[in-house]
Amino acid sequence: MDQREILLQNLERAQSKKLNQEAFKLKNQSTKYRSDNIYPTATAECPENVKKNRYKDILPYDHSRVELSLITSDTDSHYINANFIKGVYGPRAYIATQGPLPTTVTDFWRMIWEYEVMIVVMACMEFEMGKKKCERYWAEVGDPSLQCGPFSITCCPASTSLLPQAVRTIHQFHYQNWPDHDIPSSIDPILELIGEVRCYQPDDSIPICIHCSAGCGRTGVVCAIDYTWKLLKDGIVPVNFSIFSLIQEMRTQRPSIVQTKVNAGYWNTTRTETSAPPQEGSQ
Asked: What pLDDT, on the 0 to 100 scale, is given for residue 283?
């Protein structure tokens, strides 16, 4: 074994050790947040809202949760399991949310409409390992419109021009090859997806909605990759920039962002790949 191979092996061991240490710190941080109630989740714990949470241990912090003020029926409330996540240039660059439940699809569209969201990124499948992970909230090409309360959702060709009373075009980007609690086989498609997303919406003037099933692991990785990509693209990476610190900061806005050590390790790999920002596609 030559000196280069020995050096690479030692470097890999050091990186693995550091990743284990950082994952341990993040786990302890999350435990402390819960035990000391540093970031309360009182609204999510209200009896009328409990059934709106897909997972009982993933509840949006009160201080950063997305509030719904658009009321469309007597049964509507102000609650949805979603949080705003800070971006490079603004406090509401992303909405991180869970995959809608059958009873919260209309709430999801109320949120999209109220906050004028143009881009939705879906990082899970409807079903994974035989379990329902997300209720379908979109219409497929050629299918009848999906009615969600007062909202009629239609999948239209890009060239179609519709002029009813109030129509908005929402672009959904669905990444279909990201296994839960694991990582994709290649990061290139994710970088390409982010390039396409930023082709349609280059700035943070309105939030991009990102969700998986819980709205934490895969959702957090997409937020973080886009955040890092924007720093690189604009040439403003801070000298002391740290992925670990960025995850820590995001975890003060939504619980369990970048949920597993596997996700964190994948993100570390992605950081190297994004040193050359992804090419923006053409519309």
From this structure: 34
Q: Is residue 4 part of a domain?
A: no
Select which of 124, 134, 148, 212 is catalytic. 212
pLDDT of residue 28: 75
Token duo for residue 223: 């937020």
**Residue 281: pLDDT band by 50, 70, 90 thresholds?**
very low
Decide if 76 contacts 110 (C-beta within 8 A).
Answer: yes
**Overall average pLDDT of the 115-126 stretch:** 97
Element spanning 195, H or E: helix 188-200
Residue 47 lies in a domain: yes
Where residue 223 sits, what CATH number does that domain have? 3.90.190.10
Residue 121 covered by a domain: yes
Q: Name the more confident of 266 and 140.
A: 140
Please indicate, yes or no, if residue 88 is contained in any of the structural domains: yes
Q: Is the pLDDT of residue 262 over 90?
A: no
How many other CB atoms sit within 10 Å of the CB of residue 140?
9
Q: Which residue has the tokens 């990102």?
A: 210
Q: Total domain count for the chain?
A: 1
How far, in Å, are 5, 47, 160 from residue 169 at the CA level?
53, 35, 11
CA 216, CA 114: separation in Å to the nearest integer? 22
Banded pLDDT at 1 (limits 50, 70, 90): low
Residue among 245, 109, 272, 253 nearest 188 (CA): 272
- For 60-88, give the DSSP string: --GGGBPPP----STT--S--SEEEE--S
Per-residue pLDDT at 5 exceeds 80: no
Edge-to-edge strand list for the sheet holding 82-85: 82-85, 94-97, 208-211, 119-122, 171-174
What mean pLDDT value characterizes the chain?
84
| Known catalytic residue at 148 | no
Q: Which domain, by its residues, includes 79?
A: 20-157+165-273
